[in-house]
Target: Uracil-DNA glycosylase-like domain-containing protein
Amino acid sequence: MGQAPGKLAHETNMPWNDASGVRLRKWLGISAEKFYDANHIAILPMGFCYPGKAKSGDKPPRKECAPTWHERLINSMSIEHILLIGQYAQTYYLNDKLSLTQRVTNWKRYQPKYFVLPHPSPRNNIWLKKHPWFENEVVPHMQKVLAKLT
Model:
């Protein structure tokens, strides 16, 4: 679960078709070919269309998409793990009033169902530099777990 398509993803009709997607696939340890293979990965954003530009980044995803479509779509798939990417997906699904940093710091409490991840956007480079344990601890564990599925 991600936020919503960015402008490039929206224009090309290809989710995660930007620098965020490159980093996400690196974190997952998978190729673009496998990432876009619907037999292995389901890509489900919180909002289904580009919400437009805000002062810093994109506007929040439209609120009606997730409650209208997610349950129906999720129930139609066989899902072993869900990646909650960024604050919007985590707040919607976890509803625990914690910050993204608190959730990601305590990522083990959400296992085995969820992996809680910061958004892989280059805008989060500062967060990643302040929290190197994420790429040193969480990412390798996630790669190991997900590698067992393929």
About this structure: The CA atoms of residues 91 and 97 lie 7 Å apart. Residues 133-147 form the longest helix (15 residues). The chain has eight helices and two strands. Strands lie at 82-85, 114-117.
